[in-house]
UniProtKB/TrEMBL annotation:
UniProt cross-references to InterPro entries, sorted A to Z: AAA+_ATPase, ABC_SmlMolc_Importer, ABC_transporter-like_ATP-bd, ABC_transporter-like_CS, ABC_transpr_FbpC, P-loop_NTPase
SMART domains in the cross-refs: AAA
Xref: Gene3D superfamilies: P-loop containing nucleotide triphosphate hydrolases
Keywords of the record: ATP-binding, Cell membrane, Ion transport, Iron, Iron transport, Membrane, Nucleotide-binding, Transport
Protein name per its UniProtKB record: ABC transporter ATP-binding protein
Signal peptide: none
MF-aspect GO terms: ATP binding
Residue ranges constituting the ABC transporter domain according to the UniProt record: 11-246
Record Pfam families: ABC_tran
SUPFAM superfamilies to which the protein is assigned, alphabetical: P-loop containing nucleoside triphosphate hydrolases
Length: 357
């Protein structure tokens, strides 16, 4: 059986601001999530991710701004009339109800225009979404008999069941162990794409955000710092803070002079011409470290082997810097060796106070 694909809702946040008591924790959010798009909101703990999700779901009021779904304003509506599905962290299923009854829970026709009036219609819809998540044969079981990953698929089916076309996911994989997390994450992404739903997933896990989203919105201290594709966010972060949230970085103080910047490892190409003092930034895999003869610009002062990469501390022009870079071909470095760092791709330059060496 194939599941009817419903067009995902278009979600718009316009100047959305909210907080607790007199304290504003998210401010002035402007964002459009397109139909069928998967957006991840990435932020450190306390940056306001859950607050944003709760405001969209209708579980927390906005203090200013508007939230629209398909052009219709929903922020004045109670949660049950917004038609938005929510997949919370693990533990959200009713343990005393079967899988099917958990999924059917949201199909109660509280709204006079609800489509799921008859018992037969509701049962058919439950079957349909359980087919989608691959658990139709477990419909009569209690959730406790399912694995953590299967339980999260039931939670997803429950969120999809009313056919809202807009699904919010609040750190939905955080309670799963590391081995299971990657697999369930990939499954849920595929299921969401197949359902055609628009989704907003909040996470503090950068790999989760980069791997699952069409675009990632980075939230820093309650403000959107960058909304971009995973690739652009990773390789073209707009600030050092965004860069560090999106992955490991190597930073060096630099003076930009057009298409190059002068650094302690020499003149390096920039991806965008700039002028003035600031910081250059690469992802570790964009640099390579080699042993060289006497002409090397650095001396290795420390080596820490951590498997896929090696942390190399080196002294260049009297200053010590650390580079955690992948070392190819099992090359061995020892303290005292002359080494050279070569960029494999142009650096990103950010003007402003440079990083401490
Ligand atoms: N019910 C509440 N009452 C008062 N302050 C709150 C409440 N809930 C959250 N906060 C505060 O709002 C800020 C944002 O919290 P929020 O839970 O939205 O962040 P988060 O990014 O989801 O964090 P985490 O990743 O740790 O869940 C934090 O400073 C938090 O202490």
């Amino acid at each position: 059986m194939t599941v009817r694909k419903r067009p995902g809702g278009v979600l718009e946040l316009r100047g959305v601001t909210g907080g607790y008591g007199g304290t504003t924790v998210v401010r002035d959010l402007d964002l459009t999530v397109g139909s069928g798009e998967a957006l991840a909101v990435l932020g450190a703990s306390g940056s306001g991710k859950t607050t944003v999700l709760r405001m969209i779901a209708g579980l927390h009021p906005v203090s200013a701004g508007r939230i629209l779904v398909d052009g219709r304003r929903v922020d004045p509506l109670p949660a049950q009339h917004r038609g938005i599905g929510l997949v919370p962290q693990q533990g959200a299923l009713f343990p005393h109800l079967s899988v099917a009854r958990n999924v059917g829970f949201g199909l109660v026709p509280v709204d006079p225009v609800a489509r799921w009036r008859s018992r037969a219609e509701r049962a058919a819809r439950v079957r349909e979404v359980l087919e989608l998540v691959g658990l139709a044969d477990r419909a009569d079981e209690r959730p406790s008999r399912l694995s953590g990953g299967q339980q999260q698929r039931v939670a997803l089916a429950r969120a999809l069941a009313p056919g809202s076309g807009l699904i919010l996911l609040d750190e939905p994989f955080s309670a799963l162990d590391a081995a299971l997390r990657g697999r369930v994450r990939a499954e849920v992404s595929t299921l969401l794409a197949e359902s055609g739903a628009t989704s907003v997933l909040v996470t503090h896990d950068r790999a989760e955000a980069l791997a699952t989203a069409d675009r990632v919105a980075v939230l820093i201290d309650g403000r959107l710092a960058q909304v971009d594709t995973p690739e652009r966010l990773y390789y073209h972060p707009v600030s050092r803070e965004v860069a560090q949230l999106a992955g490991e970085v190597v930073l060096l103080p630099a003076t930009a002079d057009g298409g190059v910047a002068h650094t302690t490892i020499g003149a390096v190409p920039l991806d965008t011409p700039a002028r003035g003092s600031g910081t250059v930034l690469w992802r570790p895999e964009s640099l390579t470290v080699r042993r060289v003869g006497q002409e090397g610009h650095g001396v290795c002062t420390g080596v820490e082997f951590v498997g896929a990469s090696t942390l190399i501390r080196m002294c260049v022009d009297g200053t010590e810097q650390s580079f955690a870079v992948p070392v190819s071909g099992g090359e061995v470095f020892e303290v005292g060796a002359r080494v050279e760092v070569t960029p494999l791709r142009p650096a990103v330059f950010h003007a402003g106070p440079s990083v401490p060496a």
